[in-house]
UniProtKB/TrEMBL annotation:
Its EC number is 3.2.2.3. This is uridine nucleosidase. One of its GO terms (cellular component) is cytosol. PANTHER family: INOSINE-URIDINE PREFERRING NUCLEOSIDE HYDROLASE (PTHR12304), URIDINE NUCLEOSIDASE (PTHR12304:SF4).
Length: 320
């Protein structure tokens, strides 16, 4: 095995964020060098608290947590949080005791820029929430897209309906302007949208199997998961949950789990389609100059080995 890949997780925990964070911490292929927090499933302050809590559960308090933006790129406070999915506390309404740790005295954007400069070409950012912190890092250092190794984005709904409304997926809807800036910045980007993550399901039987394991992280996931399963039953009529964040995390850890297409992605930033992700495969050469002309291409996941993804998640979380 080669040297572990340096990973920063930009996160809004979130029950499935918790699964993805634990998964990364239990994966020898990656070295988690920091967590940055953002609004999304919860407000940013609570995201920071939850990130610190999850690191304590995993006994990895040495990993720094940098708090991210409390507002969108356009300075708007997020109005919609997913408390109906993840609970008012983001972790299943268990109101865990406050973590002992504190975030570092550095913004998420500044931390991202610092690490990209410290380890040029070596750092992968796994963005599990709205892309505000990443966009702010680009504004802070316009060379950031060239210095960062890869950005794996959980976001978008490519050729399928969204999960906030028919047009938009939640993370992109959270800050469409930031998403459009990131998708067109020129970095090495892999987007994992709900067209792929909806293929990856943890069943009730999987959860019961996890509960029988000796893994501390597995037991914590099981403790948090009831509300998440209840939401999926009510919203989708399914006896299981979509593994959004863990799928994106595993695409960063083991890229062979997904296949992808390459093209330009733009994000609609106004109207009833606000948050819509449009993928252009660039097969046709358009003669006129448009907002799509000369934009850098990104990778968009189109298939996933769902069975192997669930199997890997279960195995990693079950580690003592």
């Amino acid at each position: 095995m080669g040297r572990a890949k340096k990973l920063i997780i930009d996160t809004d925990p979130g029950i499935d964020d918790a699964m993805a964070i634990f998964l990364a911490l239990k994966s020898p292929e990656v070295d988690v060098i920091g967590l940055t927090t953002i609004f999304g499933n919860v407000y940013t302050t609570l995201a920071t608290r939850n990130a610190l809590h999850l690191l304590e559960v995993a006994e990895r308090q040495e990993i720094p947590v940098a708090e991210g933006s409390h507002v969108t790129l356009k300075k708007v406070t997020k109005l919609r949080i997913a408390d109906f999915v993840h609970g008012a506390d983001g972790l299943g309404n268990h109101n865990y005791p406050p973590p002992k740790g504190k975030p570092i005295d550095q913004s998420a954007a500044s931390f991202l820029v610092e690490k990209a400069n410290q380890f040029p070409g070596e750092v992968t950012v796994v963005a599990l929430g709205p892309l505000t912190n990443i966009a702010l890092a680009i504004q802070l250092d316009p060379e950031f897209p060239k210095k960062i190794g890869q950005i794996v984005i959980l976001g978008g709904a490519f050729s399928v309906n969204g999960n906030v409304n028919p047009a938009a997926e939640a993370n992109i809807f959270g800050d469409p302007e930031a998403a459009d800036e990131v998708f067109t910045c020129g970095a090495d980007i892999l987007a994992v949208g709900i067209n792929v993550t909806h293929q990856v399901v943890m069943t009730v039987a999987d959860l019961e199997e996890l509960s029988r394991s000796e893994g501390k992280c597995a037991k914590h996931v099981c403790h948090m998961a009831n509300l998440y399963f209840s939401y999926h039953k009510e919203a989708y009529g399914m006896d299981g949950v979509y593994l959004h964040d863990p799928t994106a995390m595993l695409a960063a850890i083991d890229p062979t789990l997904v296949t992808y297409a390459e093209g330009v992605v733009r994000v609609q930033t106004s109207g009833i389609m606000r948050g819509l992700t449009i993928f252009a495969n660039m097969r046709k050469r358009f003669s006129e100059i448009t907002e799509w002309t000369n934009k850098p291409t990104v990778k968009v996941a189109v298939t996933v080995n769902a069975e192997e993804t669930v199997k890997l998640l279960m195995a990693r979380l079950s580690k003592p």
